[in-house]
Amino acid sequence: ATQRTLSIIKPDAVAKNAIGEIIARFEKAGLKVVAAKMLHLDDDKAGGFYAEHKERPFFKDLVGFMTSGPVVVQVLEGEDAIAKNRELMGATNPKEAAPGTIRADFAETIDANAVHGSDSPESAEREIAYFFGADEICPR
Ligand code: CMP
């Protein structure tokens, strides 16, 4: 079925000037960008986004990293968009990511891992609403 998923191009990939190359991978795989913006997150916005990880030992570093520079948040739409995006990204830890995936090609560490993607329909719905109002999404 057609789905929407939230994608974040993280500060490491933005700093590498890889925004275009990463979005090209989404488009070549048949995903459409139906919303996009660049943001520099603050502690509250990044911490709220990753609220489910609040008790994890890596939470502080995660928020510190995600606020270290601008990010590009997008809504991707397409057939099986959630799983397709996760396939394109590769494993969370770039050292375990399959060759040819975004994280294998652009990421260095589990913290600076280039991209985020929603992991379920429920998280996609929450994450999209966290960054975009209905009037900022352009179905096409
Ligand atoms: P992301 O998919 O954005 O979701 C949470 C992020 O926490 C994850 O990518 C990683 O960048 C980061 N992270 C750091 N350490 C870990 C860990 N041990 N397990 C999972 N995620 C981690």
Descriptive notes:
It is found in: Cytoplasm. Major role in the synthesis of nucleoside triphosphates other than ATP. The ATP gamma phosphate is transferred to the NDP beta phosphate via a ping-pong mechanism, using a phosphorylated active-site intermediate. Its main location: cytoplasm. This protein is α+β, with helices and mostly antiparallel strands and about 140 residues long. Helices cover about 40% and strands about 20% of the residues. The chain contains seven helices and four strands. The protein has helices at about 10-15, 20-30, 45-50, 60-65, 80-90, 100-105, 120-130, and strands at about 1-10, 30-40, 70-80, 115. Strands 2-3-1-4 form a four-stranded antiparallel β-sheet, sandwiched between helices. The longest helix has 11 residues, at about 120-130. The radius of gyration is 14 Å and the shape is globular. About 35% of the residues are buried. It binds adenosine-3',5'-cyclic-monophosphate (CMP). Adenosine-3',5'-cyclic-monophosphate (CMP) binds near residues 53, 58, 92, 110 and 116. Adenosine-3',5'-cyclic-monophosphate (CMP) binds next to loops.
What keyword list fits this structure?
4-stranded antiparallel beta sheet; ATP-binding; magnesium; binds adenosine-3',5'-cyclic-monophosphate; transferase; 140 residues; EC 2.7.4.6
